[in-house]
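Technical note accompanying the year-one report. For the benefit of new consortium partners, we illustrate the data format agreed upon in the data management plan: each record pairs a sequence with a C-alpha cell string. No post-processing was applied to the example shown here.
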Amino acid sequence: MGDSVISARPNRLITLGVQDAAPPTDSYISQDDQLFTHVINSAPGISVIITVRLLLPDGRINTNQFQYFPNSTRAPFQASQFLAEGFILSVTATAGASNIGQTWVNCTLSRNLPVGTFPATGAYGEILLQGYLSGNNCLTWPRGQIQGTISQQGWIRSITGTLPAAGAEISETVPVGAIWSLKSFLFTFTTGAAVANRVPHLIIDDGTNQLLNLAYASTIAASLTTQILTALGITPIVVSDGVARLNTPTNILLSAGWRIRTLTTALQAADQYTAPQYEVEEWIAG
C-alpha cells in the first residue's frame, strides 16, 4: 500500500478585519441629537417601551430604555431624550396588551428643535420607526418598515351603542382621533300602537351632509317588532323570520365626527329603537 497524502485546508476561508472595523451602521449621533417619540393611543393602561442600543466611542455597547404611559383618549403624547455620542445600533418599540390599530408610535432622530416643537411628521429629522404596536407586534430599526396609520389592518371592534329615548332616533358618532370602516350595524325597531306606516332609513353623514341613505324596502305598521341589519355583501330582504336586511354598497371609511344614524318617516312618540350593536375596523387618524 502506498503512502497516503492528507491535504490540509485552512480553518478560515474568509479573513475579517476585527480591529479598527467600521461600525455596522450609518447613524452617527452627537450629544446634541435627541430621540423624539410620538404616541397616539386608544388602549387603556398601556406602557410603551423604547429600547436604544448605542456603540460608544470607546467600543462599549450601551443600552437605554425609556418607558412612557400615553393616555387612552387618542391625544398625542410626546417625549424627547438626549442620547450619548456614538452610533445607533438598533431601536425597538414595544407595548403591552394593545391591539393593532390602537397604539401608533413614531420615533424620529433630530436636533436643535425649539422648545415645544415636535417633528410628528418627520419633517425635522430622520424617521427611525413608525407604525402600530400590539402585544404580538413590535417596531424595529434599522430593518423595520415605516407604516402609515391605515396602511395595515385596524382594530376590529364590536360596539354596543347608546339606547335612544322613546320616539328618538339612533345616532352614533366616530370619536375624535379615530377612523372607522363600518362592517355591520344591527338594531331592533318596535312600533307603538299609533297607526302610521313607518319607514326606517340608515344614514351616514359627515356631521352635516348625508353621504349614504339606505331606506327599508317596505313600511312598518303599528305594534310590530322588526330587527334590521345592514352589512357588506348581504342580500337585501324585506323581512325573513323577523329580520330585515340592507346591503351596505361599499367599504366606507368614516372620519372623526361622522355619524351613523337612523331617520324614520312617520316616527311616533311611543316607537322605540334598541341600542345598536355594530362592528367597525378602527385606526388612529394620522
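Partners are asked to follow this layout when depositing records. The radius of gyration is 29 Å.
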